[in-house]
Structures are given as structure tokens and as C-alpha cells.
Amino acid sequence: MSEHLPVEWAISPAPVPYEAAIALMEARARAIREEGAPELVWLLEHPPLYTAGTSAKPADLIRHDRFPVFNAGRGGQYTYHGPGQRVAYVMLDVAAMGRDVRQFVTKLEDWIISSLSHFNIDAGPREGRVGVWVDRTKPGGTLREDKIAAIGIRLKRWVSFHGVSLNVDPDLDHFTGITPCGIADPRYGVTSLVDLGYPVGMEEADGALRAAFETVFQCRTIAGRAPYSSAV
């Protein structure tokens, strides 16, 4: 990430088809590396669908006929995307950050954690479980932790794409068609801001994400044009 050039920040107002998003991300990542195009954070929602990462196990797709399933090419296993979930695709120059993939993933985690702290939600990573989690264990009860955000990235020539997904207010029942991220242990589930009791809208979530991104990645963002709109 350049110390001088701002990162473009774009939001698609209508749901974006998954295959279109993949093609547009790959094109932008290529342009960043080959043409010096600005880095981009692209916020959007998808229609209901499941995606399979490079580590996905066939048995973890429980409902084959529920929603379309796409091979994502990113790291990770099965996940769900759909309305009420803020997907943030990050096309960033990881080479300029020192080519440290582990550190980059940690920054993505810190970004989500910082965004959630805006709403006084205490969240964090967990050893051996990808993503960002909240502890919902009741006093004297058994352990219960729920995932509120997923992370899955891919790099091409040290430019990232794919990114993070934050559950603002999706239909959580839609996660039951898969074993999310391959975790079947009943102590671990899925939650959202609204499920936790925070009536947060997408615009408010976006504001928290943008402020936290600038702080964690120590950069400036400027309004950019979304790569896809329903008018395309």
C-alpha cells in the first residue's frame, strides 16, 4: 500500500452477481499491478449463494439444492453470502506492505475488530478458527462462541482480492445449508450485529468499516466508482 496514494472506497447499491464480482476483482487486481491503478475496497451484497474455498470438503455442503454454489478460488472452506451481509472485497498491494501474508490477514482481523468496537462489541480471533468471533457463554454455562465475520483472500502477483464479510442482518438460517468454515462443533455458531441486539443498518456499518480501515491500514480513502452496478 502506497504511503502517498489514497485507497478508493466504493459501494454497490444493488446486489452483485458472484461471477461478475470475481471477474471485476481479477481485472482490478491486474490493473493495480500492471497499470498502477489505485487500490480499492469494494463494498457490496450478493444474492443468496454459497462459495467453496480451496479447502472445502464436499460433505460440508449439506443442502446442494438450496442456493447456487460457486468455487471461489480463495482460501478457506464453505461460506454463505446474501442480503444483510456486508461483503468487503479488498484489492490491495500486499507487496508494498512487506509481502507478509500472515500480517496482512491479521490486519484484516484487526479491521473488523476495530469496526465492531465502534458498537461496543468485544470480538476477536480464535486460535485454529479463521474469522472474527464473539463470546456468548452465559455465566456458569458451557462455552458458546459465534462467528460474526469471515475472512478469505487470494493473492495474484502480490495483489489481494476477495476479502471479508461482516454479518449485519442476514438470514442466519441460510448458514444451515453448509457447515460454515468446516466447523461442526455445536459450541460454535454464527451471529450478526442485529442478532446480538444491535439494530445497526448497512450505512452505519459502512461508516464504522471505513473509519476503522483508515486507522488500521494507516491510509486515506477517497470515494471511488463501484466496478459494477445494476445498470451495467
Characterize the structure shown.
By secondary structure, the protein is α/β, with parallel strands linked by helices. It has helices at residues 18-35, 101-117, 202-216, and strands at 7-11, 40-44, 49-52, 69-71, 78-81, 85-91, 124-126, 129-135, 145-156, 159-167, 188-190, 221-223. Strand 1, helix 1 (18-35) and strand 2 (40-44) form a beta-alpha-beta unit. The longest helix has 18 residues, at 18-35. The radius of gyration is 17 Å and the shape is globular.
Distance between the termini: 29 Å
Low-confidence spans: none
How would you classify the helix and strand content by structural class? alpha/beta
Beta content:
25-35%
Total helices: the number is: 3
**Helix content, binned percent:** 10-25%
Give the overall pLDDT as a whole number: 94
Major sheet: 9 strands, mixed
The overall strand count is: 12
Shape: globular
Following the backbone from N to C, one meets helices and strands in this order, namely EHEEEEEHEEEEEHE
Rg over C-alpha atoms, rounded to the nearest angstrom: 17 Å
